[in-house]
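Hi support team,

I submitted a single chain yesterday and got back a structure, but I'm not sure I'm reading the token output correctly. Could someone confirm the output below corresponds to the sequence I sent? I've pasted both exactly as they appear in my results page.

Thanks,
R.
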Amino acid sequence: MDAGVRRVMGLISEMNVRYVVPVYQRPYSWGEEQCLQLWDDILACGRSREQTHFTGSIVTMQDGTASPQGVASLAVIDGQQRITTIALLLVALARYADAHGKERLPFSRQEILMSGYLTNPFRSGDDHYKLTLSKGDRATFRAVIDQLEDPSRPAPEGPSRILDNLALFERRLDALANVATVWEGLRRLEVVSVTMAQGRDNAQLIFESMNSTGKDLSAADLIRNFVLMKYPLDRQAQAYQTYWKPLEDVLAPLADEDAFDDFIRCFFQMAYAPERLGGADLYQVFKRYVSANAYDANDRMGFLCLRLKDFAGYYVDAVRGGLSAADDADPVARRTSFHLAGIARLGGSAARPLVLELFRSCRRRECTRGQLADMLGVLESYLLRRAVCDCEGSAQEHFLRHLVAKLAAVRSAGEKYFESYVALFLVEEGTPRRFPTDEEFRRALLTRDCFGFAQAPFLLARLNARLAAGAAGAAPDDAAEDAVIACAAAGVPGSAADASALPEGWGVEHVMPVGALADPAWAQALGPDARLAFERGVNALGNLAPSAYPYDLQDGTLAQKQGRLARDADGRSVDAPLCRDVIAAQAWGPTQIEARGRALADVALGAWPLPHMDAATLEAFRPSRRAAQVKTVTWQDLVDSGVVQMDDVLVSVSPMYPGRATVTSTGRIMLATGETFDEPTAAYERFLGSVGAHETGLNGWTHWRLGEGGPLLDQLR
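Hi R., thanks for writing in. Yes, this is the structure output for that exact sequence:
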């Protein structure tokens, strides 16, 4: 490794050298703030005349080879934002010199082009360009250079940070009294230049140790660099296309630059449950995960990327609230999407690790697709009931994290996944983590302020669709979601396509208005104790309805309200099931509000049911009974006690997939591939994958024997 302080202009103008931004680096991302900081530094340096200015580091990696034209490629490990911005400033200076030919300037367009700052003038193809950016920015930047060399070429167009920052520098130069100051400042700009040799220096460690003065790297940037730096320079582009880009493509529909960071947090919250990651450094967690699972050995990083891609698909479905590749003709897929939509609105990011775990269980065939839809329905009911009952908060977040860990234990023990999942909700009865009972849920629906409830639009949309399903002849049971979905998709008034939101522009309307006490007719309808009746009823569930005119008639008469509830915003007639009883009412007061509230509460009990399990089965899952049943002896216990020892052989019991593993000196299970694991199930799952079998979620404790004809590992516990 060679390191030293260099003048930036001397560094980038070296002949027969080109700087290449590797595919794993993030796109050019400096904004106005970072550009103006560099601009101010350059001006201060230029005006000083006696001082240099240090502006960070540029770290490159060389592989010791050169192109047929004799140009060496240096991969930019750190400093690509800085070197790109300096190149843009040089382009702006060249354009300025060309447009102000009568000014006496210490530089010219021709000098900038021929001195090697932006190009290798006598080389062609890729070797001609001094700086090659990653693919997203490469074409735009090259078009800028091409147009500078030949003004007859078309100028690049379209939204681009490169073009935005180039325009920023051009405006700054036009407004500057003495442009020569910028040139002088650039000439005095210094960096620490670090050049590493592939195979001799650890680029990743050096990259992590550098202090960036620019825009902080996200977890996605750091993890992408970590993954692709594991490959030699000549394989990085292929590894990016084969392993990393497919992962990015899966997340791309979210159009959120923070999507990867949130996804990876959800993934690790699932993987390390019940540990609470909170504000943990995701990059450090990722490296810990890679090391613990030996993904950095035997070229397994690609396998990890493919695994993450699968979970990224589940994450996208969880965020968007529906299956991305669902078959509309498949009732199970429709039901799954229906509940995902509800969970997305109710649970936010806290529920996503559990959703990933449920998808994983289905992929491993621990549950059927129908059971997956049912489990998502249980989760939606849990979240909605607790939201209505105002018992969300830390206890709920704690329960969801620990539920993921308990389901992993269910998997390891080889128990029935679906039954265990339902039971783990129900055994929390009487605790702060409880699944609200029908009585508690009904009471909350009838007594709480439903207008101020954050989920009121969702609640009314689903109730409206549920009533529509009933009118269409659907049975009021747990399978009625299909009819709800069908009605919503057919355009039932007051329901979005997923029956999870009111149509755009609609809102929640009070039937009895908030100004009822000031209106003689409404006050009379409230009865003798008008104030008490008003306070009890104005924000009650029975007094709310979806409307395309939620603010136009806040204090209107009953007849006016009924007329508006029967029409959409364009004046067309609508028949929203949730509004039929209001439109048909001859009067509206406490009696009607209470009766409608009770009827809607009954509908809600069916829409978000409490799951059931027979008492005998549930009793087996209660914590005290469970503690006596679960086998607590771990693999490490068997190693520590000497039951299994170094060089012992584990034999697969499967006649279709025979195979062996050995116990290492540190007590880990090593497969024939050289991969090691710290517990039997993970080792068996990977063993099946290595021989071409589909992951089935088989319990390693019951599928490894200790030696030929020996006992199952589970029998040793």
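A quick pointer for reading it: The chain is about 50% helix and 10% strand. Let us know if anything else looks off.

Best,
Support desk
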